[in-house]
Design brief:
Order of helices and strands: HHHHHHEHEHEHEEHEEEHEEEE
Structural class: alpha/beta
Number of helices: 11
Shape: globular
Distance between the termini: 72 Å
Largest sheet: 7 strands, mixed
Number of strands: 12
Length: 330
């Protein structure tokens, strides 16, 4: 009780340090136990090294930066591929990929780890802006739009419907290129068939005009009208590819809620490649949580996550508005 304060403080500090060390050891033991239990319940062993390899591979080929918290998601999605390829360990599955760059399994690997969250009229204010943009343009030349992350098709089909509404025509002078890295979702998109709950937020008059309800075997489904589908061309394109075979002269590029999966330096490189594809008055539509301030030399914020391309960086097209097909390298 009569110990000097300094000694008491020292003893308390030592006690605290020992307690922290013991707590860390206990936590490590618990984590190891949990990992062992987790793998015991899993069909395939999946450790931190495997997860690190997956993260490095998907970052390299698709630019997707997986958060450390995505380990369970990665396991559940890739476990199906291990079964399909008859691998009994993640390490052997990843070895097979890394040792053969032309392995067709790369496509399945990428498809499995791609997030495809979308809906009709998602971030609806963008389509009001697009409608006004289209109405301000000439009807005498074809208008080119690009949806660069088409997913299962809801976004490009909404763009097509917006064009039809803007021109009050089922055959407006608009063509839409819709691309995605995921070949499975592109197959879905081309069919243009959706569940009724996927269109429940669309006004009834729009549904009647641009969709056909399924009957018989298609009961409970709804089909995009052929006229709407005719405006959209679907194609596989990886934004991380070294070159895109695209013709300059787009009037709008939709790249929404995809940049958030890329590192900032990758975002900037992609934005630099978007700019010379857009016409002088072209617009870039971004996702609600995306900010492209680092590309101010190429784009200027117009408002509500819509950017105008800076004139000196825009497409250099001929008098007829057509430019040569160019391969844009990173």
């Amino acid at each position: 009780m009569n110990r000097p304060p300094a000694k008491f403080e020292f003893s308390r500090t030592r006690y605290g340090t020992d307690a922290v060390a013991e707590a860390k050891q206990a936590a490590a033991a618990v984590n190891l136990s949990l990992q062992s239990d987790d793998n015991a319940e899993r069909e395939f062993e999946f450790n931190d090294k495997d997860f690190s390899r997956v993260r490095a591979l998907i970052l390299k080929i698709a630019g997707i930066s997986l958060a450390p918290s995505k380990q369970s998601m990665v396991y559940s999605r890739l476990a199906r591929r291990l079964r399909a390829c008859k691998h009994n360990r993640f390490s052997s599955y990843l070895d097979a990929l890394e040792h053969n760059s032309s392995n067709p399994e790369w496509e399945h690997f990428t498809n499995s780890l791609t997030t495809n969250l979308t809906s009709f009229y998602r971030e609806a204010h963008h389509f009001e802006i697009l409608k006004k943009q289209l109405q301000s343009m000439s009807r005498n030349s074809r208008i080119e739009l690009w949806c660069s992350a088409a997913s299962t098709g809801e976004e490009p089909y909404t763009m097509a419907i917006t064009a039809m509404e803007a021109f009050n025509s089922m055959n407006p002078p608009v063509r839409i290129l819709a691309t995605d890295i995921d070949t499975k979702v592109l197959e879905h998109a081309r069919k243009g068939v959706y569940r009724l709950d996927q269109v429940e937020k669309i006004p009834e008059d729009v549904l009647r005009k641009y969709f056909i309800k399924g009957k018989g075997e298609s009961e409970g489904m709804i089909h995009v009208r052929p006229e709407v589908q005719a405006l959209v061309s679907f194609r596989k394109l990886n934004l991380m590819e070294n070159a895109w075979s695209l013709r300059p002269g787009f009037d709008a590029i939709f790249c929404r809620n995809v940049m958030i999966y890329f590192e900032k330096d990758v975002q900037l490189q992609i934005l630099k490649r978007f700019a010379p594809l857009l016409n002088t008055n072209g617009l870039l539509y971004a996702g609600h949580s995306e900010n492209f301030a680092m590309a101010r030399d190429y784009f200027s914020l117009r408002g509500k996550t819509v950017y105008t391309v800076n004139a000196d960086k825009a497409a250099k097209t001929g008098a007829d508005g057509e430019g040569p097909v160019r391969k844009f390298s990173a």
